[in-house]
Here is the input.
Amino acid sequence: MRVHVVSDVHGRADALARAGEGADALICLGDLILFIDYDDHSQGIFPALFGAERAAAFIGLRTAGRFEEARAMSAELWAGLGGDPREHIERMVRHQYAEIFAAMPTPAYMTYGNVDIPRFWPDFVREGHHVLDGEVAEIGGLRVGFVGGGLRTRYRTPYELDDEEYAAKVEALGEVDVLCCHIPPAVPELLYDVVARRFERGSEATLEAIRRTQPRYALFGHVHQPLAARTRIGRTECVNVGHFRARGTPFALEW
Here is the structure.
């Protein structure tokens, strides 16, 4: 069995259309939407509405940790745009999802990232797309568990959960052979982004489940440029499958 795994697609429909080539199935660990690109300020929903120059200024505030100023700037821009901001965002999110799901290979097993909006997905999934969150699928004879979303942060992305709610989804999986999450387990070297120069949030519940049940693999994304892309916890190989928007190539897993 050969499975390709991607995470943090962030609008890369062109590469996603090829991601299943040579594989029996594709696993996607979420973050399909691109709201703003920290490398290319002209890409994403924010610059499409407000321009690359304002996107660069917004990114500069967030990178400097000036989140209240960034929120004030964003609120002022939305007010100047007119109408309900949610309508503008929904229109552009739906446009991105239409492109991404049209490009998504089949069969594909998917869960949500922290920037995804789960309520929109049913409008775009096609036959052969399996969306799982706190659920298990059998793939090639192995039990593969999926946990989507992220934990609460100061970034306030769309699909952030309380620790207890997230832990309940991890617990619901029971013992699995492969554990697939959007965010990493709470291991410092897996959480530190060397380009953004900050720690992202990881899951203590996932870490505890790995230590207790020892799946063959724990796969995740979320941290785009991690200090460590992989480590072992007991017999479990923990792997960041890579920032797909930047790399354009999937992580390959065989069993």
